Amino acid sequence: MKVALITGSNGLIGGESVEFFHDKFDKIIGIDNNLRSYFFGIDGSTIWNKNRLEEKFENLQTEEIDIRDYSALEAVFSKYSTDISLIVHTAAQPSHDWAAKEPLTDFGVNATGTLNMLELTRQYCPKAVFIFTSTNKVYGDTPNYLPLIETEKRYEIDTNHPFYKNGIDETMSIDNSKHSVFGASKVAADIMVQEYGKYFGINTGVFRGGCLTGPNHSGAQLHGFLAYLMKCAITQSHYTIFGYNGKQVRDNIHSYDLVNMFWHYYQNPKQGEVYNAGGGRHSNCSMLEAIAFCEEISGNKMNFSYQETNRIGDHIWYISDVNKFKSHYPSWNWTFDLDQTLVQMHDSMIKRL
User: Fold this and answer.
1) In the 8-state DSSP scheme, what is residue 68?
2) pTM (2 decimals)?
3) Which residues, 6+ apart, have CB-to-CB distance to 18 below 8 Å?
4) 131: closest CA among 262, 280, 33?
5) I need a surface site. Which of 114, 229, 262, 332 has the fewest CB within 10 A?
């Protein structure tokens, strides 16, 4: 029997992984205890997605385990040790705002939880492929010191800079910058995943995501920027822009396209490798541009206000260069652009709100 183990299986990327891999494996073991509802309240709850996935896929078995609980995880690994060939580790505390409130919880989930998963992989299924969803926040605020130019609707990088054409690549340092508490805990996990690949020879891959998005995102104010923005557009709830005149730029990758990257990596893994994973120049927008898109798609005028103070460590401009991944896996490419993603998101939310 061939088994895929997916943490955070009720969430955006974990749930997309369940959908993508369900017909490629005999059994999917999902690990998720809806800790997201503790982080973000009812808006962040993923129970609706858990119920949807369990009804849709008979070979999905969800275990309500906290990834900080080594013993509970070990029971799963020991039961399926010879069968596990893929681990997709997406479970995390994902908000840099929230992390500052409870640094011990944040580090426990993001760093210690990841170490638990790595060590159990080494002990029980060392030949499995281990995929980790890291974040562009591992670069800290270093991107903010690039030569940026403020235009009418967005910030943009100087056209003469090497990052202008394709975005930020993996050569950017992750050291000596302000990461946010969340970014620091993800750095610890990111480096440990690399180390288990390079030191122990395990097939570990690190994917440093930009804004991960898609129609099944449980967006909340502190995490899930596009999903929460579209929700506010549909319900005409108030939205707050924090700093940079609303011109901060993010690239956005559809959850399917990210999980498709995982699939390509799984078929030909490279130990301890790191890839930036985002929408690149293919799919990106500023906050102001995103508001205009959401207004056009929803048909509603956004109810928003502006606060001068930006979020600590927030990026002014971030676009991912994914050419390293494309050079290793040339048959991969994006499937969804920003407009298609937002329309999907709108239609999905209309059905469940």
Assistant:
1) T
2) 0.96
3) 6, 9, 28, 30, 53, 57, 60
4) 262
5) 332
